[in-house]
Amino acid sequence: MRATQRADVHGPATGAPDVPATVGPTAPVPAPSGPAGPGPAPSAAASRAAAVELDETTLVVRAQEGDVRAFEVLALRHQAALYRLAVRVMGNPPDAEDALQEALLDAWRRIGRFHGDSAFSTWMYRVVTNRCISMLRRRRPAVPVAEVGDLAELTTGPGGSPERAAEVDAGMAALGSALADLPDDQRICWVLRELEGLGYAEISEITGAGESTVRGRIHRARTRLAEAMRSWR
Questions:
Q1: How confident is the model at residue 138 (pLDDT cuts 50, 70, 90)?
Q2: Helix 162-181 vs helix 211-228: crossing angle, to nearest 10
Q3: How far apart are CA 151 and CA 179, in angstroms?
Q4: How far apart are CA 160 and CA 146, in angstroms?
Q5: Residue 75 in contact with residue 31, Cβ under 8 Å?
Q6: Does the pLDDT of residue 81 top 90, yes or no?
Q7: Closest CA to 225 of 185, 190, 179
């Protein structure tokens, strides 16, 4: 786990909160600390414990009002799925952590723009996807085979031969390379559909592309991947 940094963020409430930049698949995502109010403030642990009991709609409203503990609980609830998406799109955990941290900062800045037109999880997927796209424009990722997805059907199990294990490793390496070679928009749609299991309408919401465009991107991605993996069938 990388060392904790601090980044200044202008949140939806008055007073500029600070957000520690430590994120990962299981590490807690500390929320920004809000401005101190009059009188003795409740402990962070007590505030967080109270927020954990709230439903998501209430948490969103409170976060939009500047309740940083509510935002922290929202981030923690969705962290695993968002991190998984970032890893699959970016191709490696360090870049995924950077993307997720920046996405959480983006979400804190922009949570006032969430109007409930879609599920909050869909909105968060969109924020993370946009941040990943921004980072991908600056470089081409190498997708490690361990992060491609659930490929359990390709594994040999404990009784598999070394030859079969080597064959599977080579095949997964080829798949990782083929994924990395996909255009970013095709890879993101393919990941959201095939690895995250999202529907076309939700992918359209996340990417901002029309549903027919999403279907086309996924079809082209499947075609390119099938062609690249033909020799491994």
A1: confident
A2: 140
A3: 14
A4: 18
A5: yes
A6: yes
A7: 179
Q: What is the pLDDT of residues 46-72, one digit of tens each?
A: 655 666 778 999 999 999 999 999 999
DSSP 93-152: HHHHHHHHHHHHHHHHHHGGG--SSS-HHHHHHHHHHHHHHHHHTTS-----GGGS---G
Reading the block at residue 187, the tokens are 């890879």
Three-state SS at 6: strand
SS3 8: strand
d(CA 137, CA 180): 13
* 175, 225 contact by CB (below 8 A): yes
In a 13 Å sphere around the CA of 88, the CA atoms on its Cβ side amount to 23
What is the distance between the alpha carbons of residues 230 and 233, in angstroms, rounded to a whole number?
6
In sequence order, the 6+-apart residues with CB closer than 8 A to the CB of 86 are 95, 96, 97, 99, 100, 103, 128, 132
Amino acid at 151: L
Single pTM value for the model: 0.69
Burial 198-219 (b: 16+ CB within 10 A, else e): bebebbbbbbebeeebbbebbe
Q: How many angstroms separate the CA atoms of 159 and 7, rounded?
A: 49
Q: What's the Cα-to-Cα distance from 8 to each of 16, 18, 50, 82, 90, rounded to whole Å?
A: 7, 5, 26, 22, 24
pLDDT at 53: 74
**Reported confidence tier of residue 41, pLDDT bands at 50, 70, 90:** low
